[in-house]
Amino acid sequence: MTVEELYRIKQRVLERKQEESQSIARIVVCLDTGGIAAGAEEVLRTAEEEATRCTQPRAKVVRTGSFGVSSLDPLVMVQMPNDEPVAYVKMTPDKMRHVIQRHVIEGQIVQEYTVHVANNIMLNDYTVME
Amino acid sequence: MEDKVVQFNIDGQDVQVAAGTTVLEAARQIGVNIPTLCYLKDVNQPSGCRMCLVEVGGKLLASCSLEAQANMQVQTNSSKVRDARRAVIELLLSNHQEECNYCSRGGNCELQTLASNMHVRERRFGVERSRSVVDNESWSIVRDSAKCIQCGRCVSTCNDIQTVGAITMYNRGFETVVGPVYGRSLADSVCINCGQCVMACPVGALRERESIDEVWGAIADPTQVVVVQTAPAVRVALGEEFGLPIGTRVTGKMAAALRRLGFDKVFDTDFGADLTIMEEGTELLHRLQNGEHLPLMTSCCPGWVKFVEHNFPDKLDNLSTCKSPHEMEGALIKTYIAKKMDVDPSRITVVSVMPCVGKKFEQRRPELSYEELSDVDHVLTTRELARMIKEAGIDFVNLQDEPFDNPFGTSTGAGVIFGATGGVAEAALRTVFELVAGKELETIEYTSVRGTQGIKEAAVELPNGQVIRTAVVNGLGNARKVMQMMEKGERSYEFIEVMACPGGCVTGGGQPIIDARTRELIDVKALRAKAVYDEDRDLPVRKSHKNPDIQLLYKEFLGEPNSHLAHELLHTHYAARSLFK
Amino acid sequence: MVTSLRRVLVSDGTDCKAPNEDKKLYRMLRREITKASLAEDVELVHVQCLGLCEYEPVVVVYPEGTVYTHVQTADAHEIVENHLVQGNVVERLSNNAPDLNVRFLRRIEETPFLQGQTRIALRNCGIVDPEDIEDYIANDGYQALARALVSMTPADVIAEVKKSGLRGRGGAGFPTGLKWELAAKEPGPQKYIICNADEGDPGAFMDRSVLESDPHSVLEAMTIGGYAMGANQGYIYVRAEYPVAVQRLQHAIAQSREYGLLGDDIFGTGFHFDIDIRLGAGAFVCGEETALLNSIEGKRGTPRPKPPYPAVSGLWGKPTVINNVETYANIPAIMLRGADWFAQIGAEKAKGTKVFALTGRINNVGLVEVPIGTTLRKVIYDIGGGIPKGKKFKAVQTGGPSGGSIPAECLDSPIEYETLTALGSMMGSGGMIVMDETTCMVDVARFYLDFTKDESCGQCSPCRIGTVRILEILEKITTGNGTMEDLENLKYLGEQVKVASLCGLGQSAPNPVLSTMRYFWDEYVAHVVEKRCPSGVCKPLIHYTIDAEACTGCGLCARNCASNAISGELKQPHVIDDDICIRCGTCAEVCNYDAVACR
């Protein structure tokens, strides 16, 4: 590996990502021990299954590490072509299916699953009472 | 770091030491003995007990591992230091089975001394104790973990010095226990019973298994004739238990005390040593002639024998088939002496006083017996004999010298030097040389094999031109090294003497226990060994084959060395032992 | 398959402030929804405090995300009728808290939690795929290494790291550049560089996140460090309890080797460097650097006395640099953006940022990376979102079992190495556990000593025995058997264990005790003198009593008492026998008249 090759790899990957971002929807699932403990692996599997149904646009499922926002795990980010990503929090397989259907296939952000803040408080992380 | 000499300050005094000297060592120069517990020079230095803390720049550091630096300001007696040391003693005592009055180390315990010096007057802490494991299955050594202070001196000795590896520390933290792996007993491990762990232990967590009650019982039994024999190394150390200087010769007092204790006959194991030389010297000559099973390895040390059985089973044929001196003597007592005294052998009890705890195990070997009677019935360590003498209220120091009983009381200088490392080799050489030469020779001191260093080599040329390349080893770590060198082909010998205990029997596992600090300052081995060689010099006869009672024994009873009867009574065999069952 | 058409959250303070309200609002909404035949289409969820305590009772309606505040039981009908049935927001209730700014966020970076952070060590976490080296390269990965190997000498690299002011992030805070320099000065040729990934502090997961989310940054940094100090072999000592981290590291190392970024002749400069993984085996003490060295050497994990320091005599006696994961994570950023950039961030004596694992009684749990010198208040309230359920902040434990508890009056202290040490705690590796009024500080000390005592290696007497004795005294106190003399003994033992122990574990083990005694002395005294636990945690010290005036003698409590500790005649005030009571709290739960008090 020479330094030039290093730069070439960087260029190549950035170009590919640039191209993809214009035509393919990116579904990013954040996976680390904390997320896995919260169920991120099932969410990932669901995303991979459901992504095959997407044709207009096609969808690609990508994994990254974690942002460390433990109270909102599992975290999934959906980025439609030529658009900014949307962060969905406290995901479950059901919600994942819903998001792929509504957001990726039908083009509608599922606002309910995004971060809901009131001043500094994130309302997404609540405990259900019996 | 480039300086050869470091100048610094202890307690306001300027001190100059060689670079690399620790603060602990440097402090001695100005008369400050910083207290230590886990520190055993050249053996164990984990800096773990925290007794040797000194204050440097407001911080407390362990002086045993602190190298002196230029201009360092050290305080050995600030209130911070004293408070910390007291806290350490309080904590150690809080986890220690305090039965000083019942403990075998009462009065000779390093923890007791420190506690007394720190004048700790109350017990403030301590509810839970770490796990208590009392292991008294071994015939030689008893482990009592409730007294263990986790200094690690025994573990370092067993693993690094002796390379036996019988004990280790298992579990962690407060739950740590010192012992064989898998929680086994010493009897169930590769322990070879050298007892060096007992010598290393500052407290009573490791001690010998006592046979005093059994011996009193035999003496009191009117049906039994109780015969005692004493090893060469005992007579140069026994006096220390009564306050005499290290290495004082107390042979005559010892014999006198033994008589007063009630033994019917007081014999000298040195006679057995002379016997061993006759048998082993002949054995060596045979092997030299046949060129078989060389090198001949001595077999008088039971620790070494068990070590070979565990670790070098393919070399068992190299061991001499001779029993050890006291076993030979025991066998003869129950045959030759029994006949002479007209006593049924089953009514004779043989007690050996040894500098060794390994002999307690050795005595129990079933093959060391004749016609179902064990050659030796009980083994007492030097320490146990001292206890019996004190128990009987005998004023040992002021006893008049008395001689041993005959016929097993006559011995030569060659016999007595068995107590020092190199003694067996030298004794053997004195006899073998003359047997081959066929005449008397002037030189009888082979100083090349004397001295306390671990491995000594000498090549002695016999009059017939044959060269006996001799290795004299003390300490099993060195023995292992020699075995490995031989296996790799780096060395060849005809004769190897091995003593398991570093320094030889004079510092064996049954000898008086000297505290760590004294051992640093005084070369105990050298002092006791010198006493042994002095005994040799003062004896009229100095070659085993010249011992008139030995000559009589062969004439009247055994015939000649390695005869059939000699083989039955005085020789033995060995068996391989696995490392782990 | 899909969630209900509507989801309605009700937080009516049932669990904290108004026990007598008895879920009235929730019940009313349920009735109204059923009446409107919407039970199938609306999911009604009764939740614990959402953190909007001043605005309670609160009702949130999804998917719109409408937040209704100060909702009365009588409003239930209007909400159901207008909003759920007809789809019209009830403005009266959604606008009656003008200072409440409610909104949906689009990007995760917009969350108040992340907004307040400055991410350097965590710069790639959540952004790159840890299992794809090319993704790392696309994010400027390995460019720092290229620059260091091709255009800089080892001395240049060391100078840059020294200029940045980076201090070790594992807890000791030793200047990293200086450590590399000391090791570089030692003669070779065999030297080692090690990454301490043992992260043993309970509640700390900063290192875990870096290893799992950005393993290549550690590999790159170790290679740079090896170049700077003259080592060709690196080891990552990672605790076996992190299987995902281990697997990702193994994968990253394999990929690095494949791409020629580890191994022989990296970037054609003639520099060889490789990294191997060594697994820990469950001992906290092996996070101490010299015990770590012994562990790698195959010995018992017991620390060595220092000096000599590892930079001079380390792994197998060779010069060794040991740094923490987070320290390494900063290196590529420093090399790429420059030491001056890094030195601008942070405080005067400690540059850059620090990652904290914010956990405990806090609304927003997770990883917080802020410039050193940020105040505790900012981290806990602005970023952490404050204490849930409307409880009051009591203390924050920094530095794990080696650290101390910092009380409310110190909340405006900047988080810096020396400041925290002066407060009786320490920076440590970054664990930050928040405690509220329901935490008993004596119990906290007991918890930490229980941990340290277990993890002591046993080599030195003060720690091996001292931690047990300290724990025994704390257990005496928390079971109601403590005396004032015990408190004196605690102080004595704590001080002595601190100064006499061989390694950092023992030296810092008493910190939780000493710091809680310093700031919460009254709590200790209450335990010992009054035999009372003010926070209601130490079971033997809490007492349940029945208020004779409020008690109606219905007998419900007696019938439900698991240990038959309550006696009384019908319609007469009942009494709890304190000796028999097992403190389960059932009587307080079932009493309809609020007559059972717990002190």
Shape designation of chain B: globular
| CATH level 3 topology of chain A | Glutaredoxin
Tally of domains of chain A:
1
- Spell the H/E element sequence of chain A: HEHHEEEHEE
The unreliable regions of chain A are none
SS-based structural class of chain A? alpha+beta
Unreliable spans of chain B are none
Order the strands across the largest sheet of chain B as they lie in space: 2-1-5-3-4
Quaternary assembly = heterotrimer
The biggest beta sheet of chain A is recorded as: 4 strands, mixed
Largest sheet of chain B: 5 strands, mixed
Named at the architecture level, the CATH assignment of chain A is 3-Layer(aba) Sandwich
Indicate the topology:
The complex is a heterotrimer of chains A (130), B (581) and C (599).
Chain A: H1 3-23, E1 24-30, H2 33-37, H3 40-51, E2 58-64, E3 76-79, E4 86-88, H4 93-105, E5 115-118, E6 121-122
Helix pairs in contact in A: 3-4
Chain B: E1 5-10, E2 13-18, H1 23-29, E3 53-56, E4 59-62, E5 73-75, H2 79-94, H3 110-117, E6 134-135, E7 141-144, H4 153-161, E8 168-170, E9 177-179, H5 196-200, E10 206-208, H6 212-220, E11 225-230, H7 251-261, E12 265-268, H8 269-290, E13 296-297, H9 302-311, H10 325-341, E14 348-354, H11 358-363, E15 369-370, E16 373-374, E17 378-381, H12 382-391, H13 413-416, H14 423-437, E18 455-461, E19 467-474, H15 476-487, E20 495-499, H16 516-521, H17 524-538, H18 548-558, H19 564-570
Parallel strand pairs in B: 1-5, 11-12, 11-14, 13-20, 14-17, 19-20
Antiparallel strand pairs in B: 1-2, 3-4, 3-5, 6-7, 7-10, 8-9, 15-16, 18-19
Helix pairs in contact in B: 8-10, 8-14
Chain C: E1 6-11, H1 24-35, E2 42-46, E3 58-62, E4 66-68, H2 76-85, H3 91-94, E5 102-105, H4 112-115, H5 133-138, H6 143-151, H7 154-164, H8 176-185, E6 192-197, H9 206-213, H10 215-229, E7 233-238, H11 243-258, E8 274-279, H12 289-296, E9 320-324, H13 325-337, H14 339-344, E10 353-360, E11 366-371, H15 376-383, E12 393-398, E13 404-407, H16 417-422, E14 431-436, H17 441-455, H18 461-478, H19 484-500, H20 504-508, H21 511-519, H22 521-530, E15 544-546, H23 556-560, E16 566-567, E17 575-576, H24 586-590, E18 596-598
